[in-house]
Amino acid sequence: MNAQVSNARRQRGALLIEVLVSIVICAFGLLGFAALQARATAAEFESYQRSQALVLLSDMTDRMNANRGNAGSYVVSGLIGEGAAADCASLAGASLDLCEWGNLIRGSAETRGGSKVGSMLSARGCITRAVGTSDRYVISVVWQGTVATGAPANGCGQGDSAFPREDQRRAVSSTVCIARLKDPDVIPPTPRC
Predict the structure, then answer these.
(1) For the chain, how many structural domains are there in total?
(2) pTM
(3) Which of 11, 24, 36, 118 could disulfide-link to 107, CB 3.0 to 4.6 Å?
């Protein structure tokens, strides 16, 4: 009988230790799952911002294509979309398009509870003439990402205070080629886009 009592005393607490080890293992698993969810949420937000930027890029590309005769009027030396929303009522042509696009970049298109919630974090736009051409324009949309990656090669927004970290600045761009109608017999032929 003494041997059984001695064994029982040695076994006391063993079940409690097994339960504690199981709880610790489950806690690590739940922490891993929470980290996975956080990364998935961040990736989803990054994807949402990129899709918003592509919609804005497509919008300005369409506006420039619709007003091809005045494409040079769209070139802006600064960033588009800084500051408060502008009143575009008295504008026309390229000025109206730039004003409305700037408001869209600021997030004026989507509201929730009276607040403007659309667009990306610190979004800005740039429209420049491609180097060495007179008929190619580069439209860019930049914004602040949430996760550090490599800095984009696109210079739009570079050095701006809205983008304190280059490895979090995101950019998408598109080149618009405006057709110039010329006599094909004129020499030398102009290289096209």
Answers:
(1) 1
(2) 0.76
(3) 118
